[in-house]
Specification:
This protein has one domain. 76% of the residues lie in helices and 0% in strands.
Length: 147
């Protein structure tokens, strides 16, 4: 069961990054789209690094549990940031990010672009920060078991 949860989180995350960049590609083209895709590309490389190092699909539940917790917390933090931005700050936080590519002028589609910016740029950055922190942690003793 836990392997299925970890696999589902990985698939959901990769789908979120791809769908968000696809949504941004409707209005952002050329090198701007490449720059927008850099965080997701680096996060994907980190995800592949986790898979190669055996931290994602490790037979030990504790290793998978730590990785799944990092991935789930970054997803929840991104969702929380979007809701806080929309309902508390009236869109001020992500509007500055959308202004980088002049997407703030599309008021009718502002929510969709806010979600795309959060999923394609903010979440990969949060995942990179948390993932590097996870890689810098010393491996738990006794074959990655946490005690």
């Amino acid at each position: 069961m836990r392997r299925a949860v970890t696999f589902s989180l990985v698939v959901l995350t990769v789908f979120l990054w791809a769908a968000s960049l696809w949504r941004l590609s409707a209005r952002v083209t050329g090198m701007d789209l490449v720059y927008a895709g850099i965080p997701a590309g680096l996060a994907l490389l980190l995800l592949i690094g986790f898979a190669v190092s055996g931290r994602i699909f490790n037979p030990n539940d504790n290793v998978r549990r730590v990785f799944s917790a990092v991935l789930a917390v970054t997803l929840l933090l991104t969702i929380g940031l979007v809701y806080a931005d929309i309902f508390v700050f009236s869109g001020e936080i992500f509007e500055r990010g959308l202004a980088i590519w002049r997407l703030d002028i599309f008021y009718q589609e502002r929510f969709a672009y806010t979600l795309a910016f959060a999923g394609g740029i903010v979440h990969p950055i949060l995942f990179i920060i948390a993932g590097v922190g996870l890689l810098c942690l010393p491996p738990p003793k006794d074959g990655f078991t946490m005690r």
